[in-house]
Write a structure and sequence with these properties.
Elements (H helix, E strand, L loop, with lengths): L8 H6 L7 E4 L3 E5 L7 E7 L14 H5 L1 H11 L7 E4 L15 E5 L10
Bound molecules: guanosine-5'-monophosphate (5GP) and zinc ion.
The site of zinc ion has 6 residues, from helix 1.
Length: 119
């Protein structure tokens, strides 16, 4: 069960109630550095509007989320990882490894990430 938007960690980050290292912001999307980076570049890209995850998008919230792959490609270029390669993933639900229940994509790169999608 997800927290209400008023209590949600990433909603608080989007509202700037909790500080984060923001690298990109527009009206509907925010990208900031993961607090526990798993790679030299590890950004989290979120729609500012709360959705629990990919399974919970609505006609209202889906358009912003659909822009995330294009933003990830721009940020990969900005962060200098385009030529080496990068990964964009969203963990869905407990078995998917999701721990923060506000839709987010991890943008990872800056080192060889390996071929395994799970261990
Ligand atoms: P998930 O496990 O849900 O796919 O990813 C959640 C991510 O949020 C984790 O990689 C975790 O390190 C990151 N995270 C958790 N709390 C914070 C925080 O307060 N600030 C930032 N910037 N990242 C966080
Ligand atoms: Zn939220």
């Amino acid at each position: 069960m997800s927290a209400p938007a008023s209590e949600c960690l990433f909603c608080k980050i989007a509202r700037k109630e909790i500080p984060s290292a923001i690298v990109y912001e527009d009206d509907t999307l925010l990208a900031f550095k993961d607090i526990f980076p798993q790679a030299p570049v590890h950004l989290l890209i979120i729609p500012k509007a709360h959705s629990e995850g990919l399974a919970d998008l609505t006609p209202e919230t889906a358009p912003a989320a659909a822009r995330i792959p294009q933003l990830a490609a721009k940020l990969a270029l900005d962060q200098g990882i385009q030529s080496g390669g990068w990964r964009l993933i969203s963990n869905c639900g407990a078995d998917g490894g999701q721990t923060v229940f506000h839709l987010h994509f991890h943008l990872l790169g800056g080192k060889p990430l390996g071929g395994k999608l799970c261990q």
